[in-house]
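Slide 14.
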Amino acid sequence: MARPTADPLAIMRLLSQDMSRGFRPMTARDFPPINVWQGANSVAVTAELPGVKPADLDVEVHNDMLTISGERKSPSHEGETRRRSERAFGRFGRLVRLPYRVDRDRVDARFRDGVLEIELHRPEEDLPRRIDVRAG
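Slide 15: predicted structure.
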């Protein structure tokens, strides 16, 4: 374990920097937040899209690139003045480089409870193939 420095406030500054990194505001290029899982035969991507309707989403795949784009529309409250707005509205897009090419005919996308779930399968010809070795 590291020893404390001579500066008694150094630890507080480091903690403050760590907290700031963890709670930084999300930028347009960070929306939607995504998770990516890689398996031997497929990749799963989830994207959190609260307030977005499936009709306002576009999902495209080309080789090893996945594009998620769309629009989150601002709710209108006629006759009312907006006093505070912390949620971002408007067009968004994310590019996700996948760990390998995918079979664009074997992509499954589901939208449930504001979460987009996409499973992208590897082409059969790209899957590892076991080679039997014969004696002699």
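Speaker note: The chain is about 10% helix and 35% strand.
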